[in-house]
Design goal:
This protein is mostly helical and 58 residues long. 50% of the residues lie in helices and 0% in strands. It has one helix and no strands. The termini are far apart.
């Protein structure tokens, strides 16, 4: 192999790893909270301190 091809292999591996590492962030943006409904049980009477029973609110 010539020198240029040998140098391209680590660069390709590095780019592949960078793309692979960014995949979870992309998936979080696609399937994250902005596409779903977020319900706060405190709005329905749950006790955020945990001192009283919040089962009915949940």
């Amino acid at each position: 192999m010539n020198h240029q091809k040998v140098m391209n292999i680590p660069v390709c591996i590095l780019i592949f790893c960078m793309l692979l590492c960014s995949l979870p962030m992309y998936m979080q943006n696609v399937y994250g909270e902005e596409n779903g409904v977020v319900i706060n049980p405190v709005d329905y009477g749950a006790d955020p301190t945990g001192e009283s029973d919040s089962a009915e609110a949940i």
